[in-house]
């Protein structure tokens, strides 16, 4: 099984740098790297094999140098081939490592296989002869244990012919397997439709609840703003009324003061006139 050893060394180095525990196994006509007993990456001839999430296959196939894996003659879901030119740079190889390591915990692990009749587990670097994807060579054929020879079947005596029936028995009814399959398919379709309807109603309810909460918050904010505006207006009105009262009082006080001053002036003038007249009268009496 020939494969690009330089590309395999690059994969080993990158896995060791990430301190990922892995094992190596020869399968798919090349060398594969397994993590948690599940295939992660592989090198087949001069191209890279990657096991990725089947949902991300279309996105991966959009890249240059990526092809669907059709090793057995049919496309395998979740497996892709990547040309060597598309992983020349370390960043490109790291991208595929990230993609495969992300899907590895979700991937299904195959059952452990055994290579001999004593059921001893195979090593990481051994070839699994029971794997149908592994190409068989002469060395593998020689190392593979031969199947035990089957015992010759015993000859049985021919059964006696049954007596002819008086009337031909009616033919058995056809199995109702297609009807059962149709019923199961109908039930599944009904369940799917019910789930979709339930999901849609739940989404609508959530959206309605969110809209109601937003409306309530907006109304509360508006109420707070209105209350603040009312309080401000009341304060302004109170202030204006107080100012007016103070002005009125000051005006009244100033008017009183002015009137008092005028009255005092008049009293003084009248007193001066009286004093003058008294003086004049005294002078006349003295003469």
Poorly predicted residue ranges: 113-149, 160-170
Largest sheet: 6 strands, antiparallel
Beta-strand portion reads 5-15%
**How many runs of DSSP E, i.e. beta strands?**
6
CATH topology term of the domain at 1-145: Aspartate Aminotransferase, domain 1
How far the N terminus sits from the C terminus, by CA atoms, comes to 167 Å
Note the run of SSEs as H and E.
HEEEEHEEHHH
Bulk shape:
elongated
State the secondary-structure class: alpha+beta
Examine the secondary-structure arrangement and name the CATH architecture of the domain at 1-145: Alpha-Beta Complex
What's the total helix number? 5
If you average the pLDDT, what whole number results? 79
Helix % is 40-55%
Radius of gyration: 53 Å
Specify the CATH class of the domain at 1-145.
Alpha Beta
Q: Order of strands in the sheet with the most strands? A: 1-2-3-4-6-5
Keywords:
287 residues, alpha+beta, Aspartate Aminotransferase, domain 1, 52% helix
Describe the protein.
By secondary structure, the chain is an alpha+beta fold. It has a domain at 1-145: Aspartate Aminotransferase, domain 1, CATH 3.90.1150. The chain has five helices and six strands. It has helices at 5-17, 57-61, 90-103, 138-143, 177-286, and strands at residues 23-27, 30-35, 38-44, 47-51, 66-68, 79-83. It has a six-stranded antiparallel sheet with strand order 1-2-3-4-6-5.
């Amino acid at each position: 099984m020939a494969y690009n050893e330089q590309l395999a060394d690059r994969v080993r180095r990158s896995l060791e740098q990430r301190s990922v525990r892995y094992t190596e196994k020869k399968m798919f006509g090349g060398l594969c790297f397994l993590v948690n007993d599940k295939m992660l990456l592989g090198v087949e001839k001069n191209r890279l094999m990657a096991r990725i999430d089947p949902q991300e296959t279309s996105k991966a196939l959009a890249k240059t140098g990526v092809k669907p894996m059709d090793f057995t003659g049919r496309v395998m879901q979740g497996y892709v081939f990547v040309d060597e030119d598309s992983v020349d740079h370390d960043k490109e190889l790291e991208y595929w490592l990230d993609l495969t390591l992300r899907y590895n915990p979700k991937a299904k692990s195959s059952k452990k296989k055994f290579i001999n009749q004593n059921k001893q587990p195979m090593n990481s670097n051994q070839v699994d002869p029971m794997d149908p994807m592994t190409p068989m060579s002469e060395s593998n054929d020689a190392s593979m244990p031969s199947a035990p020879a089957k015992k010759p079947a015993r000859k049985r005596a021919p059964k006696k012919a049954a007596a002819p029936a008086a009337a031909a028995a009616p033919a058995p009814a056809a199995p109702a397997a297609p009807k059962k399959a149709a019923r199961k398919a109908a039930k599944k379709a009904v369940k799917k439709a019910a789930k979709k309807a339930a999901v849609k109603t739940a989404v609508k309810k959530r959206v309605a609840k969110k809209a109601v909460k937003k409306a309530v918050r907006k109304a509360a904010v508006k109420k707070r703003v209105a209350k603040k505006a009312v309080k401000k207006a009341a304060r302004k009105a109170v202030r204006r009324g107080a100012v007016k009262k103070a002005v009125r009082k000051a005006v009244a006080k100033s008017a009183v003061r002015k009137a008092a001053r005028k009255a005092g002036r008049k009293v003084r003038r009248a007193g001066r006139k009286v004093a003058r007249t008294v003086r004049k009268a005294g002078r006349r009496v003295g003469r």
